[in-house]
Hints:
- The chain is 46% helix and 18% strand.
- The chain is α/β, with parallel strands linked by helices.
- The protein has two domains: 3-240, Bira Bifunctional Protein, Domain 2 (BirA Bifunctional Protein, domain 2, 2-Layer Sandwich); 250-466, no CATH class.
- Strands 1, 2, 3, 4, 5, 6, 7, 8 and 9 form a nine-stranded mixed beta sheet that branches. The protein has a two-stranded parallel sheet with strand order 10-11.
- Bound molecules: adenosine-5'-triphosphate and magnesium ion (3 copies).
- One magnesium ion binds at residues 173, 197, 476-477.
- Its EC number is 6.1.1.7.
Amino acid sequence: MExxxxxxxxxxxxxxxxxxxxxxxxxxxxxxxLLLVNAGMVPFKPYFLAQQTxxxxxxxxxxxxxxxxxxxxxxxxxxxASFFQMLGNFSFGDYFKEQAIPFAWELLxxxxxxxxxxxxxxxxxxxxxxxxxxxxxxxxxxxxxxxxRIQRRDLADNYWHMGVPGPGGPCSEIxxxxxxxxxREGGPIADENRFLEVWxxxxxxxxxSQVRTKIDFDVAGELPAKNIDTGMGLxxxxxxxxxxxxxxxxxxxxxxxxxxxxxxxxxYGRDKRADVSLRVIADHMRAGVMxxxxxxxxxxxxxxxxxRRMLRRAIRNLRLLGxxxxxxxxxxxxxxxxxMGQQYPELKADAANIHTVIDAEEASFLxxxxxxxxxxxxxxxxxxxxxxxxxxxxxxxQLHDTYGFPIDLTLEMxxxxxxxxxxxxFRRLMKEQRDRAKADAAAKKTGNADISVFTTILEKAGxxxxxxxxxxxSEAN
Length: 477
Ligand code: ATP
Ligand code: MG
Ligand code: MG
Ligand code: MG
């Protein structure tokens, strides 16, 4: 089943059950506390916070989302993308658990020929919050899920709130057992690779009066009107329904991966490190194209940082695969627009602009690489002349600070020259610089415009997004 069809089926199922289909909002969040939309519920936040009256009691959407917190997982786990799509059904004071759980079960297990996803019942597991007997009862008595496939999890995993006084409550996650070839017995608590989380159902049940941390808050009482917020990962569903090993091999992503392999004359499935690179390229191209499509431009701040980081990490990984200075971004952008265009036809209309932005970023990054490389060569020569085998931390730091050379690039190029790098020294200087910056807020923006994307930008963007995360999404863990 194609990705586009998975989204269609989800929306149709809930539309038939009285939900209004709401188109995806832009990745660029209207919400000032958020950098990018990171959950399907974000556009509905004002309704949940009772700041606005919803024009409907039930809604469903296929929302574009970005999670920068997951970037380091990309390509390494089988299930984390930076850009993905969250399918959701929402109730604003309308139905609650007793209906949300059976809805989910019905859609997952209904035969494909009848508009469902056709999952065999014995593959499905659920988690519920420690004291949520109600949810467990619905799963067991109403739906018929055996008790030994319902696991209880604590606050850290199965409770949701926005990080501010307001609605909160337990959640229930649904997992698909991919079979013993993917890992250990014992359900999701034992192995989240074998037991793949596909859907999270959040039950907004309580009014929280005080929220100190994710797991430390005061409950004022039950909400008079309870809400439902759910999020299903489209790419994870596609991996299962398309019978592939991971989310980078699904229809809309594999074409990009395959093109990257072809362009760099590498082959997927032969070498672990190269495979990670290919998955990162495929993932980051998707994220990059979707961000540009939503009007984001590369820059050194905020969303622009995230985009820049996506594109430069893609370029960097092409290099790791041996692309050198060859320019492949145009071809990769074209295949990405094509792959995502079925679901997002506006990408095709905007293709010329997307190409212009991405091509320019590639040219600028390759330029930075070129300048930095000249400086690097001088540093190597000096090191050799002194008879040393280790490039100084000072030099690595200067390459980073002045020429925007990421440390992993310095490490790789040094290794090619048979040299080591004083990484400890480099990190010490980085830390000193950070401490200085912290002490002097005015010095926050240095002239180091360029490609610190790989280290400092990661921290910056990660931090900004982190706030959004804990505070405003339906992310349970
Ligand atoms: P995980 O525990 O696997 O990191 P999560 O609990 O953080 O997932 P939720 O916040 O509950 O995820 O998001 C709802 C759904 O979105 C998940 O059940 C999953 O199907 C999907 N999802 C979450 N993060 C990602 C990701 N990085 N890439 C692809 N799909 C994701
Ligand atoms: Mg979850
Ligand atoms: Mg989870
Ligand atoms: Mg997560």
